[in-house]
Amino acid sequence: MEKSIDPIPIDLAECDGERVQDSHPVKASTKKSSKKISNLTNLTKPGSHFKRQRRLTSEVWVNYEFLDEPDENGNLLCKCKKCGTTYNADSKNGTGNLKRHIQNCMRRNYLDVGQMIIDSSASGSLENRLPSINADIFRELVASAIVRHDLPFQFAEYDGIRKCFSYLHPDVKVVSRNTLKADILKMYRREKSNLREYMTAISSRISLTSDCWSSITTDGYISLTAHFIDNHWTLQKRILNFRFFPPPHSGVHMSDEVCSMLKEWGIQKKIMSITLDNASSNDVFADVIKSELDLICGGDYFHVRCCAHILNLVVQDGLKEIDDAVIKVRESVKYCKGSQARRQRFLTSVAHVELDNARGLRQDAPTRWNSTYLMLESVLYYKKAFIHFQKSDANYIHCPTTDEWVRIEKIFRFLKVFYDVTKVFSGTLYPTANMYFPNVLKVRLLLKEEMGSTDKFMNKMANKMYEKFSKYWANFSTIMVVAVVLDPRFKFQFVEWAYKRVYGEFEYESELSKFKDKFNALYDAYYHEFAIVPSTSHSHTSNNKSGQHGVVDVDPVCDEFMTVNFLYCSILLFYFNFSNLQLQ
């Protein structure tokens, strides 16, 4: 006769939330009970004892932990280990609701081992039980990735990519390249519509930049970029169009193309200026398109020449006849980088004179003057190393002499001014129109100084550069000088001082008077566009008390003050409109 073994009482407070398993086997009593025994007895109050008559066999309990406190009805509770959702853990309720929660729990890690359950199929493999995915969101994410990383449409059809997506979720449906193309076009149309609404809502005028070029396959393309200040006074830039541009690339054809772009975006009446390079067709293009747009001052300030491009033309003319010292520097760099053995010997010389070898030598491209400047900068840093290298390598014959090193330093300082000004003009995170006048003035004074130099090479180079400089900048751009006047760091006093330096004591007053007339005309144009129209109710409301007949008295002095300040803000808005990125 078997003896009945009583269950061991366990205090719930001592379990500390862990799953409790009875280590003593339970044998059936000789007395048959008509009552079905539950695997978890109900708890009546905190701290009470419960009896567990068989161990928990469902794999669902790996994802839950028992709570110390029962509910108000004395039922045992458990909570999800990921999201903390509580459920009734009494065995009479079953585990179906717990399994369904595992499938839908949003806090669960997809790679959690707790989600790996043994499949009931014949394969007996392990599979992930993941929440369902939104197919539309997945397709949009794939389309965005292809656009952002410049991937081919066929990317979604790669076998390896499809296997990767299927591993992450077995229900994922990878689309074809044609469907992906349609999704990207749909995304483009949506974003274009949003951008169009955004740009039509801004209160400032828009400055444009445009350029044309040919691809390696000789196909022509044209781009159009908008620069503006948004309603939060933040500098913004948007590429509006980048499209195929078939020949002829004439000014009239360009005008028709750009005009259709502006009408497509609905901003043809909000344009302030357009910046172009110095191609002759661009002059025709700017003159033709003026009649199609609503411009300030009849379009007098519409066409802006690219300052960085002009500066590049100026320096290129000056470096056409390069100095012999610069040729020696170029050959020295070629020699040191010509083989691994020479490079190693040069690095030994660098270490001997205790210089940093991480900077390295820069080889220039003769067609790009800024690379020549960077080459001179690197060579001057390793000047002592080159002198030592000449002593250790008998085959090195291109080391400059002492006088040539002096001339190289002079050329380097001269080019540094142009390099720094080009970097200022090429800025993208700040306004640049107010930088034009002081930097062009710096270049002009530098050229005038070098034109009187006793160094024949510097004198010849400065004369050639000033000839090109005068072709484009013989007179200062009026609109750029206006930007300097509105800059609180310079104001009108700086313009007066600069005109006196450039035009002399006798001519500067007439040039300054011309500028003042243009400035006043521009002010009047902005006044008529942005000034507040006085209310017609002033005359018949002056005798009424405030609040009578629904009309509020308006103080004429206060109204005038607000009008002037609003106009001042409008002029500032003009300054920021034209201080976008159009100098590039």
Description:
By secondary structure, this protein is α+β, with helices and mostly antiparallel strands. Helix content is 48%, strand content 10%. Strands 10-9-8-11-12 form a 5-stranded mixed beta sheet. The protein has a 3-stranded antiparallel beta sheet with strand order 3-4-5, with helices on one face. Strands 1-2 form a two-stranded antiparallel ribbon. α12 (402-425) packs antiparallel against α13 (433-451). The longest helix has 40 residues, at 491-530. Mean pLDDT is 79; it is low at 1-50, 111-128, 534-570 and 578-582.
Summarize the structure.
The chain is α+β, with helices and mostly antiparallel strands and 584 residues long. Helix content is 48%, strand content 10%.
Label this structure with key terms.
single chain, 584 residues, alpha+beta, three-stranded antiparallel sheet, 48% helix, extended, disordered C terminus
Determine the number of helices (DSSP H or I, runs of at least 4 residues): 18
pLDDT < 50 stretches: 1-50, 111-128, 534-570, 578-582
Overall geometry comes to: extended
The side-by-side strand order for the widest beta sheet comes to 10-9-8-11-12
Overall pLDDT level: 79
Specify Rg, calculated over alpha carbons. Answer: 40 Å
Helical content stands at 40-55%
* Sheet with most strands: 5 strands, mixed
Hey, roughly how much beta strand do the residues contain? 5-15%
Structural class: alpha+beta
Q: SSE order, as H and E? A: EEEEEHEEHHHEEEHEHEHHHHHHHHHHHH
Instruction: State the end-to-end distance.
Output: 102 Å
- Give the beta-strand count: 12
